[in-house]
Design goal:
The complex is a heterodimer of chains A (about 375) and B (about 140).
Chain A lengths: L7 E6 L2 E7 L6 E3 L8 E7 L7 E7 L3 E7 L7 E3 L30 E6 L8 E5 L3 E5 L7 E2 L1 H4 L16 E6 L7 E5 L3 E5 L7 E2 L20 E7 L2 E9 L2 E5 L7 E2 L8 E8 L2 E10 L14 E4 L4 E4 L17 E3 L7 E4 L5 E4 L7 E2 L7 E7 L5
Antiparallel strand pairs in A: 1-2, 1-28, 2-3, 4-5, 5-6, 6-7, 8-9, 9-10, 10-11, 12-13, 13-14, 14-15, 16-17, 17-18, 18-19, 20-21, 21-22, 22-23, 24-25, 25-26, 26-27
Chain B lengths: L26 H4 L18 E7 L12 E5 L2 H11 L18 E5 L2 E2 L15 E6 L5
Parallel strand pairs in B: 1-5
Antiparallel strand pairs in B: 1-2, 3-4, 3-5
């Protein structure tokens, strides 16, 4: 570990996992060796309840999806139980000849998101996967329980995929109530449960579906990503195919905030514990799926003033950059660090809530996800 | 690796998979049966042979380092046994529905059955199975 290290930036890339260690000022970065070499890693996350524990959603093009974990900050990784893995003769046939009317079982495709549980449930994690699957483990990944209220949802046959497939990519936990959580699925929308996952209600009111004949259906929204305001768990910021939105009432109603930006398409959105009432979006051209201005840019939404601000000096980093749904995140320091990974392998860092930006001098493979392992509390 | 006492049919070239007459007790079944005949659809439960199974270097991370000797009468049963011996191979070769993964190739005496008869391929008169990753990526 670098002397005086403060944060570790965890990158899931098209070709493996990287752990990037910063110094105390978040100006100097040390890139560790790649793990999961050659695999598409859609998400890497640190478990703040167990310092040193990392989890990775590894999707290998040949051998399929694997949940991997490390207990030493990524120095060594091991495969742990991947869900939906009935053994031997319990395998489900793709088509059941004995019961042709039975639903066709689809294989587990990509793993999309791993969410550590609340501090009160130290061994619980959640996993979102394709096709529209949600799992929970209460033993740190040794076994996974399917959450059947989603996995066998009665309306599931009508759930369409997004370009990334039938992905369940967003999982948010209410820190005040372990029974309340939220999920986001493409192209289905967002749901909330108040009973620990027994039942779910769609929460997409106000979100436009420009790609459907019905522009305001109950479900069918192509939500790209949602984050919770760290200071107010009733407030959410949403990047949707249909624009940028905010909700102040636990997703009961969404209000579009991105219209002043013109094209408010994008994938990534983040909020910071030390910057409540702010959200960070990377606006992309809706057709090209890269920054349309010809340079790297991050837009900050000030929820109190209801105003937008550009954080990057125009032209400081010329080019066209793609950013995926997990491609932007923050740390918990003050001022907040903002981290953005691009589909062409650049890692941009601001150590001071967007005032100054640097490009980490390392060419990574295309970056799927950026997350941060925060330093232990002093 | 040395296996049990099952007689081994002689290795043959080309597509013929017929064991030498008199060395396996299969002659009544196999005599004159061409490759691709209804024999290939023979149900499981046929007499089993000891097979040499070879995994490519990438798959050896999860399975045997060298050749493995397995007795099986179909690709499905062979993979069942292989996964029972090496649990980390589960779901690497086949997905949860039991089908061979898109970018995995299973060769039965040199013939790729991944996209044809797949896991139901009978292994009568077969000597060697190669399980490899396919040409893919970018």
């Amino acid at each position: 570990m670098a002397k005086g290290s403060t944060v570790r930036v965890l990158l899931g890339t098209r070709k493996g996992t990287y752990v990037v260690e910063g110094d105390a000022r978040r100006r100097s970065w040390k890139v560790g060796p790649v793990a999961h070499d050659g695999s598409d890693v859609f998400h890497v996350v640190a478990d703040p309840r167990h310092p040193g524990d990392l989890y990775a959603a590894v999707n290998n093009g040949f051998w399929g999806p694997m949940v991997q974990y490390s207990r030493n900050w990524g120095k060594k990784w091991k495969e742990i139980s991947t869900p939906l893995t009935p053994s031997g003769k319990d395998r489900q046939p793709a088509f059941n000849e004995e019961d042709p009317t039975a639903p066709v079982r689809r294989p587990l495709n990509n793993l999309w998101h791993i969410e550590p549980g609340l501090p009160s449930e130290p061994d619980t994690l959640y996993l979102g996967a394709d096709p529209h699957l949600l799992f929970r483990t209460t033993d740190r990944g040794t076994t996974w329980d399917p959450i059947e209220s989603i996995n066998n949802h009665p309306d599931k046959k009508n759930w369409a995929p997004g370009a990334g497939g039938h992905c369940l990519h967003t999982i948010l936990l209410d820190p005040r109530d372990p029974h309340r959580m939220y999920i986001g699925l493409s192209a289905v929308g967002t749901f909330r449960t108040e009973d620990g996952g027994t039942s779910w209600i769609p929460r997409n009111k106000g979100v436009l579906t420009p790609f459907l004949p019905n522009k305001h259906p109950e479900t069918g929204q192509c939500v790209h990503h949602v984050v919770m305001d760290a200071a107010n768990p009733d407030t959410f910021y949403r990047q949707d195919h249909g624009g940028m939105y905010v909700s102040h009432d636990r997703m009961d109603r969404w209000v579009r905030i991105g219209k002043p930006l013109g094209d408010d398409f994008g994938f990534g959105v983040a909020s910071a514990p030390t910057a409540p009432g702010r959200a960070y979006f990377v606006r992309l051209n809706g057709m090209a799926r890269v920054t349309g201005e010809g340079h790297f840019q991050v837009h900050e939404w000030n929820d109190e003033r209801r105003a937008w601000r550009k954080l990057v000096r125009p032209g400081a980093f010329p080019g066209h950059f793609g950013v995926q749904r997990e491609g932007i995140t923050t740390d918990n320091l003050d001022p907040a660090g903002i981290y953005v990974g691009t589909t062409t392998g650049q890692l941009f860092v601001s150590p001071d809530a967007g005032r100054r930006w640097q490009l980490v001098p390392y060419q990574f493979p295309g970056i799927h996800s950026v997350s941060v392992a925060n330093p232990p509390a002093a | 690796m040395e296996g049990g006492g099952e007689p081994e049919p002689p290795r043959r070239s080309g597509r013929a998979r017929l064991p030498a007459l008199g060395d396996s007790g299969f002659e009544d079944v196999l005599r004159g049966t061409p490759f691709g005949s209804p024999l290939r659809g023979q149900p499981h439960g046929s007499p089993k042979l000891m097979l040499d199974v070879h995994l490519d270097s990438w798959l050896r991370e999860f399975g045997p380092r060298g050749r493995e000797r397995i007795e099986a009468d179909s690709v499905e049963h062979l993979l069942d046994e292989l996964e029972a011996r090496y649990p980390r191979l589960r779901f690497k070769i086949r997905d949860e529905t039991g089908q061979i993964r898109r970018y995995v190739r299973v060769f039965v005496d040199g013939e790729d059955v991944s996209g044809t008869t797949g896991v139901s391929t009978p292994l009568v008169g077969v000597r060697a199975i190669d399980i490899l990753h396919s040409i893919a990526g970018g």
